[in-house]
Every structure is written in structure tokens, then in C-alpha cells.
């Protein structure tokens, strides 16, 4: 394919050189003439493993050249890959100035009929927040092109997952390829661009592709911060943190796995809250600052509060809650977030009914009974004997369980407002219904 790559920084330079080495005909574009001249001389404008020899080779064969002329680049390509920077503004917001400018330039070139034969596809590879492409860049492109994105001009978002220092290796052996497609034809074009590379390809809506990059980077930062904080606590307590992490990382079932990484309701139970508190307390006693660890429980509490606010926004006063124990299949109520939710709703004066097939006040014993009598002493009058009893009572139902008897009885359309705390199996279909609100979206 004939590809123009806008921006010859790390991402653009590596993308241009690697695509050229795959057999594509690539034109690099940059406002910095020094970068343009370096590429045309077969030299890399960035310092990066393998990039120098790769650029020298693809320039020598004629597969890559560079220019400062946008019209020339668009005229000579079928696909424009936008790799310009999106730095932070002083207040932390995303700077989209360069993205907007390049989009205007590409749109103006297309409006002049610069690209000959076939539909041009604009692929945004720059990191940008969800909504940037559809709400900001697409209108700019349509204004200058004088047509409709997805019809007259292709549009896609294709985030990169290149690490500085190993970016050439990462390009040829990507962890995944993500294509946010405005329309299937745009997605097909980007898919063809990377034909032959290993790794799974995900074709998703445009905002999803934008968000995936942020999910990755936020998690990478979180992992590093977590490891460093834990290391500091271990050091203060006289423990070898690398031994701890070696064992931690060996657990591929719960630790390094998809476990617990699905948006849903707050966590609770007899272990997680207690152990987080004691670890943070031990860190404070040792004068070790652990801002990540110390904010996990407040974050969890804030998420629970979001569920309360969803109920408040319905304006309904008769509420039903399905689920009470902290984990399905148990009657353990200790530090259950659903108990906390029930307590907050009851305290706000909601007329509440609760159903949990595993919870019977007469069977609660020991610490479990003591806990519920302290936190929710009115539980006996709140518990319902059946799903139907809750549904007949409630104007708004909060679903915190996957009990088949509950799921099969939940009405569609007319009936109580459904507040989904767990992402119901039919959540996609229910999302279009006026009486459905989800916490796990």
C-alpha cells in the first residue's frame, strides 16, 4: 500500500520504517525540515535500537522517503497515518492542537483532489481520549473534505503499543493490534496494513480503541507504583521484596491473570478490606508513604457511592436489592459491599426489600450474625422470602447477584427501574431500554 506518515517522532519514525520494510511505499511527513533531511539521507531522527540500520535500508531501496509537503504526501498515498504528539497542557488536559492542524491539512489536500483513484483513509495513531476522534477530528475532516467520514473518506483509530528502546521489536511482534473502525471498509484497510504480523487483531468501535491505550498505560503505571510501594513496605519490615514478588508473579490464576479485572461492583469480604487496612497501618508506623495502597479502600467506597447515586437519580423511593452476601454461593455478610449499600439506602429513608437465597437470619451464626446485627439491625424486616415479593414491592431494583432465579425473573420494558451492579448477561440488549441503568459500563 501507499502510506503517508504524519509526524516523524518515535512513533511515526518507527511506524514509517517498519511499514516500508514490510513492502509498503511510505512517505514520512514532518514540519521539521531537519527530520525530513535526516530521513532522506537514510539517517534516523530518533535514537532507538535497530532504527538506524532499518531506515538506511528502506531509504536505499526507495521504500521510504520524507517531505514537508502535505499535499504531495496525500497525493502519493492511499492511507494517511497520523502520529503527531498529544502532550499535556499545564493543567493536565490533552493538547490536541497538532492533531487538529494535521487533520485540517489532510482534509484540505483531499478537497483539492490530491488523492487520485479510490477512497483515502485517515488513520489516527496518536494517543487521544475517547470522543476526540468522533467529536473533534471527524467534524474537522468532513468540513475540509466536504463529504461524510466513513463514506467519502475512511477514518480509523489505531493506537500503538511501542515501548521506547524496543519499539522496532514491538512493532514486528505486537501484543495486539487494535483497530477502531468508523466503518468496515476503514477497518479492512488498516487490517491489510499490518497483514502478516503476529498477535490478535481487535476491530472495535472508535471510542473503545481510544480508551484501550489509556487502560494499558494507566495499568502499567499502577503496576510499577504498586510494586514500588510494596517494595518500600517490605524493606521497612525487613522482608526481601523480590522474593515476595517472585512468588506473587508465579500465581497465574489470580494475580497475573484476568481475575478481578472486570468492571463491576465494589469489593468486600472478611479478607481484602482488613488486610489492606493492616498493611497501610504497618506502612504508616514505619513512616513509609503508600499513596496508592492507602487510596484503594477510599476508591472502593466511592464506587459503592456511585450505586447509591444511581438510585437517587431515579427519583424512586421503594427499592429492591437482589444479593446481600459478599460473594455468590455464601452467606458471609462480613464487610459485604451489598450490606453497606443496603445500610446507606435504609439510612436515607428508602423503603427497602432484600432477597438473597443464601441468607436467612435464623441461620446466621457467630461473627456473621454479630456483624449484621451491628450494621443492619433491621435486616429481619427487610428480608423477602422470594424474588416476586421484591419485584412486587420495588420501583427500582438493584441487581448484585447472578442467581438464575433472579435473572430469569427480571422484567424488560415496563416495570421497575433496573440498576445493574454486575453487568447482566443481557446488558447489551437492556441498555437500549429506558428503565435500565448500569454501574459496570
Automatic annotation (TrEMBL):
Residues 320-427 form the UDP-glucose/GDP-mannose dehydrogenase C-terminal domain. Keywords: Alginate biosynthesis, NAD, Oxidoreductase. The keyword Oxidoreductase applies. Its EC number is 1.1.1.132. The keyword NAD applies. Pfam families: UDPG_MGDP_dh, UDPG_MGDP_dh_C, UDPG_MGDP_dh_N. InterPro entries: 6-PGluconate_DH-like_C_sf (IPR008927), GDPman_DH (IPR028358), NAD(P)-bd_dom_sf (IPR036291), UDP-Glc/GDP-Man (IPR017476), UDP-Glc/GDP-Man_DH_C (IPR014027), UDP-Glc/GDP-Man_DH_C_sf (IPR036220), UDP-Glc/GDP-Man_DH_dimer (IPR014026), UDP-Glc/GDP-Man_DH_N (IPR001732). Pathway: Glycan biosynthesis; alginate biosynthesis. Belongs to the UDP-glucose/GDP-mannose dehydrogenase family. This is GDP-mannose 6-dehydrogenase.
Amino acid at each position: 500500500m501507499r502510506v503517508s506518515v504524519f509526524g516523524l517522532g518515535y512513533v511515526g519514525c518507527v511506524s514509517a520504517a517498519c511499514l516500508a520494510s514490510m513492502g509498503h511505499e511510505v512517505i514520512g511527513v514532518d514540519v521539521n525540515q531537519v527530520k525530513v533531511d535526516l530521513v532522506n539521507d537514510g539517517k534516523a531522527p530518533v535514537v532507538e535500537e535497530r532504527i538506524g540500520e532499518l531506515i538506511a535500508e528502506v531509504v536505499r531501496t526507495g521504500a521510504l522517503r520524507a517531505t514537508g509537503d502535505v499535499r504531495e504526501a496525500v497525493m502519493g498515498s492511499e492511507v494517511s497515518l497520523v502520529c503527531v504528539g498529544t502532550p499535556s497542557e499545564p493543567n493536565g488536559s490533552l493538547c490536541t492542537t497538532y492533531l487538529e492542524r494535521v487533520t485540517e491539512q489532510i482534509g484540505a489536500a483531499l478537497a483539492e483532489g490530491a488523492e487520485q483513484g479510490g477512497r483515502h483513509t485517515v488513520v489516527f495513531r496518536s494517543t487521544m481520549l475517547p470522543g476526540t476522534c468522533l467529536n473533534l477530528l471527524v467534524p474537522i475532516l468532513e468540513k475540509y473534505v466536504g463529504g461524510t467520514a466513513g463514506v467519502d473518506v475512511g477514518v480509523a483509530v489505531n493506537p500503538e503499543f511501542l515501548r521506547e528502546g524496543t519499539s522496532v521489536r514491538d512493532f514486528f511482534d505486537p501484543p495486539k493490534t487494535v483497530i477502531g473502525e468508523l466503518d468496515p471498509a476503514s477497518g479492512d484497510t488498516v487490517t491489510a496494513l499490518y497483514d502478516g504480523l503476529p498477535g490478535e487483531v481487535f476491530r472495535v468501535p472508535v471510542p473503545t480503541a481510544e480508551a484501550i491505550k489509556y487502560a494499558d498505560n494507566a495499568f502499567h503505571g499502577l503496576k510499577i507504583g504498586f510494586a514500588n510501594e510494596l517494595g518500600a513496605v517490605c524493606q521497612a519490615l525487613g522482608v526481601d521484596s523480590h522474593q515476595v514478588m517472585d512468588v506473587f508473579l508465579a500465581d497465574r490464576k489470580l494475580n497475573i491473570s484476568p481475575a478481578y479485572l472486570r468492571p463491576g461492583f465494589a469489593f468486600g469480604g472478611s479478607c481484602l478490606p482488613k488486610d489492606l487496612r493492616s498493611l497501610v497501618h504497618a506502612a504508616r508506623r514505619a513512616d513509609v508513604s503508600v499513596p496508592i495502597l492507602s487510596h484503594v479502600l477510599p476508591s472502593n467506597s466511592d464506587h459503592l457511592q456511585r450505586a447509591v447515586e444511581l438510585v437517587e437519580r431515579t427519583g424512586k423511593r421503594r427499592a429492591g436489592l437482589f444479593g446481600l452476601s459478599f460473594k455468590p454461593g455464601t452467606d458471609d455478610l462480613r464487610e459485604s459491599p451489598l450490606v453497606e449499600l443496603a445500610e446507606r439506602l435504609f439510612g436515607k429513608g428508602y423503603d427497602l426489600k432484600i432477597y438473597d437465597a443464601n441468607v436467612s437470619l435464623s441461620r446466621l451464626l457467630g461473627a456473621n450474625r454479630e456483624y449484621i446485627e451491628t450494621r443492619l439491625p433491621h435486616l429481619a424486616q427487610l428480608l423477602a422470602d422470594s424474588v416476586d415479593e421484591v419485584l412486587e414491592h420495588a420501583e427500582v431494583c438493584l441487581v448484585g447477584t447472578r442467581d438464575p432465579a433472579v435473572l430469569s425473573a427480571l422484567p424488560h420494558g415496563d416495570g421497575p427501574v433496573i440498576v445493574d451492579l454486575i453487568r447482566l448477561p443481557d446488558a447489551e440488549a437492556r441498555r437500549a431500554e429506558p428503565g435500565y441503568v448500569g454501574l459496570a459500563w
